[in-house]
Amino acid sequence: MFSPVWPLGVAALLGLLPLAADAAASGTAPPPSVASPSGPDANVRITEPYARLVARDAWFWAWPMVNLYNRRLAFQKAPEPGLFGGVVPLAPLNRLSMLSDYIEPAQRWVACPNQDVVYGASILALDVSPIVIQVPDFGKRFWVYQLADLRTDDFARLGSMYGSKPGFYMVVGRDWKGSVPKGIVQVFRADTSTAMIVPRIFQADTAADKAAIQQLISGVDVYPLADYDGTMKHHDWRTVRKFPQPSQASAGETRWVRPQAFFDELPTVLADAPPLPGEQARYAQVLAVIDAAHNDPALKQAMIDEAEKADQELIAPLLQFRNWGVPLPHHWTTIGNGAQFGTDYFTRTAVARSNIMVNAPNETKYYYEDLDASGVRLTGDNAYTITFEKDHLPPTRGFWSLTLYDEHHFFVPNALNRYSLGTRNTELKYNSDGSLTLYLQAESPGADKESNWLPAPKGGAFSLMLRNYWPDERAARHEWKPPGLVKAS
């Protein structure tokens, strides 16, 4: 029989040689120790092509973290909880601001918003203080608070689907070692110093429900641990201050990641989010190149130049849903690891570019569409229908909605002020066989069908997102899939 000749160190690691103690007892010398691998040598001169390679790679995998960190820098400028431009919740770090109704169409801070829930937003600086979260009693109303770290991965479970109790919850940083005050229901620990909380509370599209929700959301709040006294604080979110918003030239999302600043910001961002297992070499590599560029303006400019190219060649295409995701019939796509990306850098960055801050799969199932059933780009030049057969609506324990966006993933202004259709719409008309047909087009399909009409941009491309909040097991197992978009003849 063939007997391999193993190198001494490998043989020891594989257990083919005696351990040190056994070797000593037998009178043989122990095998030599295996040295730990070293990282980049700071004294080595590097080439511009190598710096470009590392810069391009880092631009892609770190893009979501820099995106969220720059939102932290924006929030820390807020003097008090309020609404930026009168439309976006904005609060000082470790505080929260809430809307009092659906989000306004004019906002450009977050792509792919929805008009199914009343949103709130809080960015946490856990390196400054632990924080307390208030959860009022929402009764049977659907609600979920998303708690995401700097990587946009969730680190807590808080919502209807978890049976979470009303009361006070606490969020602490990775190194916090204090005592938990009396009255705190549960403590959540984040792995990054920066985190974000996004409450989502369902609201039906009726005047009665818009009035009823005000008392409930008045108890939604976030504040530093020092302000905790065991009593619920309340706000009338309809009266918060409105901050002016500078005009924006682009019709797309506010640009949060810029090549000129990226490599100056990245060391701080990476210190905020320590490497996951296996990422240590990736961190060391980019930090060594950034360090080299500090003393070489030409090298730094080359890195910036490469980041600009990567932004156009790698990041920009990810705005389009058809370029990524798990393929489904009729050209729909979906994801199975939302807010649980870990080291799936591609999906994390794709989601961050196109619709950042998605919920975990058991909280919300997302379906994305750019194309009709024949594979042609959706456009307001055409009229389309989507028909859900009887008993084949999205299988949900919460609610579902179909939202239409323009090419930049924002709402399409229209006379009906309507941007989505679904559970919240109480006037949807069903067909005689029990199926439900929705009409997606620029012009009205007729007065008898307007309750089911989702207005599209005239002559412009558009995209769709179907959300299923608190999906049942059929959706989780991909047993239910959305029907295709049929172009009208």
Automatic annotation (TrEMBL):
Transmembrane residue ranges: none
Domain DUF1254: from-to ranges: 94-224
Keywords: Signal
Keyword Signal attributed: yes
Database matches in SUPFAM superfamilies: VPA0735-like
Pfam families: DUF1214, DUF1254
Gene3D superfamilies: Domain of unknown function DUF1214, C-terminal domain (2.60.120.600), Domain of unknown function DUF1254 (2.60.40.1610)
Domain DUF1214 positions: 364-472
This protein's record includes keyword Signal: yes
Signal peptide extent: 1-23
InterPro entries, A to Z: DUF1214, DUF1214_C_sf, DUF1254, DUF1254_sf
PANTHER family per the UniProt record, alphabetical: BLL3101 PROTEIN (PTHR36509)
The protein, known as: DUF1254 domain-containing protein
Organism: Paraburkholderia sabiae
Species lineage: Bacteria, Pseudomonadati, Pseudomonadota, Betaproteobacteria, Burkholderiales
